[in-house]
Amino acid sequence: MEGGYGLLRKDRQGKKGGGVALYIKNVHTWTEVEMNVGDSCVESLWVKLKGVKNEGDIMLGVYYRPPSQVEEVDEAFFKQLTKLAKAQDLVVMGDFNYPDICWETNTARHRLSNKFLDCIGDNFLFQKVEKATRGEAVLDLVLTNREELIENLKVEDSIGDSDHEIIEFMILRKGRRETSTIEVMDFRKADFDKLRELVGKVPWEARLKGKTTEESWKYFKGTLLRAQKQTIPLCRKDRKYGKRPAWLNKEILHDLKIKKESYNLLRAARSRGHGVRTTGDLKMAVHGKMQMKPGIF
Known about the structure:
One of its GO terms (cellular component) is extracellular matrix. The protein is an alpha+beta fold.
């Protein structure tokens, strides 16, 4: 193709509008990734860019979500995203059409928007666009599983008659761990016994007596943060351990999987009109499958 770029596209079948396209510079070696789920209904494209030298591959995706998209198609895309989030490096961009999401607080008014936020959280993805891309809404997003992959992101101008702003950013082939000034809690070196002791000896009933809900929360938060500072050391943010937090061990992943399965069972039961009865059955099933472990406190 002229200009040194190749075009990969996926048109909407049987209708005008929609669809997605991706221009890839010819210097890159890439392969299109076919998905086994939702490939016919989800407007998405996935490409694996071959890494050079000792650098790993990058999974690159582009996605369009129509404002009226049904929940089943949302679920199909979530499955695609969950599968590909396990890739070493992942970048997904596109028009997601969730105007009610507040990205400063990661909250939303509508149920489908909250399900999307849950999907992002469950897969430990970062959303990098902070400025509005259409009117006052952030509709166009850039997601990644490695925050340091995206740099110099700008939202400005538009093309032709489009009412969406252009998003421009760089994908770094290597992270810059050596320049990181971000400190995070080092749970591997945490003294949880000491943390339990400090929190456990606080006379909570006496301390919270007469306080409002807001005052009680501030007292609890301050007490916990002081105890945390004494028992959990800080370390420089380092990506050598991958995207999974230190506290996310196999047991917690197992429990999260059961939680998701239980939620799906409950939702299916409610749709059949057996919510009350099935809720009790569900509790029994969850207790039967999950071995409860002692918490921090």
